[in-house]
């Protein structure tokens, strides 16, 4: 695969207004209007280059609306993207999300080229624990299986018995068939799981820097001021979760909205996620206590274009790490997603 040489920087052409009228209408309530004509040339160039390359663009639900609606072929939560990477036909995947998501795609599709547009797109949970920490935990709790959240590095996954996401965490923990499970690295998600199972959960002290910022007082204030339903991601603190009408994974939140059809909802989660759901639920008013993930925001139309143009940054994982991490991930994929979420 050779990179097309000297591709010009995409610029506005009048035809774009007609070609992308439907997309522009979709983006209008989600991004400042003035930005749409700035985005369209990049969206057009990416879509053309993507076709030329035979690439698939996958975007996590926390990606900005112009990426999520404008260039992604596959969108979803981290479990959905992992499942898509394992089954997709394309040889080239551009993963618009954070580094652990691109690593997961590469582990599940080792013969494909997986690109991340900015390799500094990290995650406070993934960086809270190392493979050596996992080995030390095992030594402290002999015989207890390790279930790691998908928000971990490939090296940590390789030290784990199984991986889970917030969409199937309780199921995966219980599938270990053990009285005690080491769950890492998200302390708050671990506490949330512990409330739903008899299995003893050994916790690690990782936190999501986006979700830990929400406070119970803030949630109560939003509810009182706007008379709204509240849904929250389980990476929030137990005090915040206690204030919510519904607690669930990224996908579960969408399913809850489809089921309950609330007139108003406060999404106690990452900000772009509410934007991306808005167009699916036009009858619902979204109140956004807005916390953006700075790592997700590192992905832009410009670096997606450069990634496709120059085939950068390719994810590489040592074979032995990849093989062990794959076994842990495949255990999760065999369990799948809980029906209700
Ligand atoms: P999901 O597993 O729900 O996609 O969430 C990933 C994440 O990073 C949440 O902050
Ligand atoms: Fe990591 Fe939190 Fe960002 Fe998700 S929102 S990628 S858990 S820092």
UniProtKB/TrEMBL annotation:
Cofactor: [4Fe-4S] cluster
GO molecular function: 4 iron, 4 sulfur cluster binding; metal ion binding; quinolinate synthetase A activity
Annotated metabolic or biological route of this protein: Cofactor biosynthesis; NAD(+) biosynthesis; quinolinate from iminoaspartate: step 1/1
EC number: 2.5.1.72
Domain of life per record: Bacteria
Family matches, as InterPro entries: NadA (IPR003473), NadA_sf (IPR036094)
UniProt keyword annotation of Transferase present: yes
Enzyme class: transferase
Gene3D superfamilies: NadA-like
NCBIfam families registered for this protein in UniProt: nadA, PRK09375.1-2, PRK09375.1-4
Descriptive protein name: Quinolinate synthase
Organism, scientific name: Rhodanobacter denitrificans
Higher taxonomy: Bacteria, Pseudomonadati, Pseudomonadota, Gammaproteobacteria, Lysobacterales
């Amino acid at each position: 695969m050779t990179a097309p040489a000297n591709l010009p920087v995409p610029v506005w052409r009048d035809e774009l207004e007609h070609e992308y009228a439907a997309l522009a209408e979709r983006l209008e309530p989600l991004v400042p209007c003035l930005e749409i004509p700035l985005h369209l040339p990049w969206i057009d160039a990416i879509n053309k280059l993507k076709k030329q390359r035979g690439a698939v663009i996958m975007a996590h639900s926390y990606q900005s609306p112009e990426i999520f609606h404008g260039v992604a072929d596959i969108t979803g939560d981290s479990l959905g993207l992992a499942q898509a990477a394992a089954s997709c036909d394309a040889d080239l995947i551009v993963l618009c999300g954070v580094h652990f998501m691109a690593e997961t795609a590469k582990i599940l599709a080792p013969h494909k080229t997986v690109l991340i547009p900015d390799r500094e797109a990290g995650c406070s949970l993934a960086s809270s624990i190392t493979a050596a920490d996992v080995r030390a935990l095992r030594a402290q709790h002999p015989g207890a299986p390790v279930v790691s959240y998908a928000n971990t590095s490939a090296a940590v996954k390789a030290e784990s018995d199984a991986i889970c996401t917030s969409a199937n965490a309780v199921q995966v923990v219980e599938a270990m068939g053990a009285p005690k499970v080491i769950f890492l690295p998200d302390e708050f998600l671990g506490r949330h799981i512990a409330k739903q199972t008899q299995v003893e959960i050994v916790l690690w002290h990782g936190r999501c820097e986006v979700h830990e910022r929400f406070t119970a007082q803030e949630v109560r204030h939003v509810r009182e001021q706007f008379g709204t339903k509240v849904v929250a991601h389980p990476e929030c603190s137990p005090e915040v979760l206690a204030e919510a009408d519904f607690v669930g994974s990224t996908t579960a939140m969408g399913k809850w909205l489809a089921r309950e059809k609330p007139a108003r909802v406060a999404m106690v989660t990452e900000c772009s996620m509410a934007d991306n759901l808005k167009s699916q639920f036009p009858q619902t008013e979204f109140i956004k206590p807005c916390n953006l993930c700075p790592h997700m925001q590192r992905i832009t139309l410009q670096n997606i274009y450069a990634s496709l143009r120059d085939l950068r940054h390719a994810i590489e994982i040592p074979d032995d790490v990849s093989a062990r991490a794959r076994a842990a991930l495949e255990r999760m994929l065999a369990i799948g997603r809980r029906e209700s979420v």
